[in-house]
Amino acid sequence: MISLNELSLVLAGHEPALIDRSDGDNRAAVAMIIDSSGSQSDPKIIFIERAQDPKDPWSGHMALPGGRCETSSESVIDAARRETREEIGLYLPRDSLLGRLDDLQGRHAGRSQGLVISCLVFGVDKKAAFTPNHEVADIVQVPFSVLLDKGNRTTIEYPVLGSGRYPAVHFVPDDSRVIWGLTYRFLRQLVGLFGYCLPES
């Protein structure tokens, strides 16, 4: 399995591909939080289920804590830390940052939104007490062993994007919720650094 120590070493040596965009209104950041408090050899990733909102096209989907940078001067690291504290009540010290993945372009209905999304990877080793806000319906911690289990792979349809099917990962038996889309693409990046391959989105 992937340990927190291995994650720290590999991410420290990873040079992410970044997309230059200085406009804070068009940049967002998410936090991929690796929790090793239960197991050093099989840590968990913290995901959120977005609350139901008729104005949100991704309402009810699984995601990582995060959101837009509030100003052009706010760094993506600070935005990810601030959004994590606002959404799930978890404070991430700056020294808990393990590294960063490649930036991705935000999409809606298959089209670019002109939004650059950065993924910051953090490590925590103490059991956290979460306090989700109104944007979060649920918080789920999923071990790497579950995310990498080929038996949990699936595909989904999302009519907003057309008639195609998209790769996804189940994380709870008999649960219709899946990890897919942008969150899946960041997850695929991370496990790819360790030689694991998830189907391409």
CATH superfamily: Nucleoside Triphosphate Pyrophosphohydrolase
Give the count of helical stretches. 4
Number of strands: 11
End-to-end CA span: 23 Å
Folded structure, characterized:
With 201 residues, the protein is α+β, with helices and mostly antiparallel strands. It contains 4 helices and 11 strands; from the N terminus they run αββββαββββαβββα. The chain has helices spanning 4-12, 76-88, 144-148, 181-192, and strands at 27-35, 44-50, 62-63, 66-68, 97-100, 104-108, 111-124, 136-143, 153-157, 165-170, 178-180. It is globular and about 40 Å long. The protein has one domain (4-149): Nucleoside Triphosphate Pyrophosphohydrolase (Alpha-Beta Complex). The protein is 19% helix and 33% strand.
Fold topology:
Layout: H1 4-12, E1 27-35, E2 44-50, E3 62-63, E4 66-68, H2 76-88, E5 97-100, E6 104-108, E7 111-124, E8 136-143, H3 144-148, E9 153-157, E10 165-170, E11 178-180, H4 181-192
Parallel strand pairs: 1-7
Antiparallel strand pairs: 1-2, 1-4, 2-3, 2-8, 5-7, 6-7, 9-10, 10-11
Short description:
With 201 residues, the protein is an alpha+beta fold. The chain is 19% helix and 33% strand. The model has no long low-confidence stretch (mean pLDDT 90).
Structure keywords:
Nucleoside Triphosphate Pyrophosphohydrolase, eight-stranded mixed β-sheet, three-stranded antiparallel β-sheet, alpha+beta, 201 residues
